Amino acid sequence: MKDTRGRIVSAAAGLIAEKGFKRTSVDDVIERADLSGKSHFYHYFKSKEELGLEVLGRQFESFAERGLVILREPLIHPMERLHLFIDSLVALQTERGFRVGSPFGTLATEMADLHEGFRERLVQVFDRWAAQIEALLWEARPMLNPDADTRRLARFLIATLEGALMMSKVNRDAEMLRAIAADLKRFVSSHLREGVPA
Description:
Blueprint: H1 2-19, H2 26-32, H3 38-44, H4 48-66, H5 78-95, H6 103-111, H7 116-139, H8 150-171, H9 174-189
């Protein structure tokens, strides 16, 4: 039973990444997940919206496991962790051939106005992501300029990364994405106290 539910979520996640939420139909999901019919789908999910929320939740948990875990690695210097995190997003986007972009930015632009539940879930996703980056920056606080606002900087990092991932999907240009990542690292380094290595 759990395997079938997971298959449905995986199929929907792939379709939403390729086509968007609006253009992904329940029939598309049934076909991709190799289900026997609509009754099989509705046994696990009451609606396409409920499935969308599940996809969003699972994508964030996967992102938290594989990506955000870098931000919490205590044996690596905080700023190096941040650089590794940025590099991992660049590598993932390049590996995927620029077909997907950000899982959250894409969903946010399409789904936030469709359903209040989507908007609330997306707020939670971005808040959790910002909290992870802010915690890392707070850990690096002794190295940062006294006037550095860690909360504001965390949100700026996310906004820049989301924009970079969207642009790279449109342009399919690895060099452009790498250049934006390098500029972002330099921007963060500009908040370090004088004499602290970047």
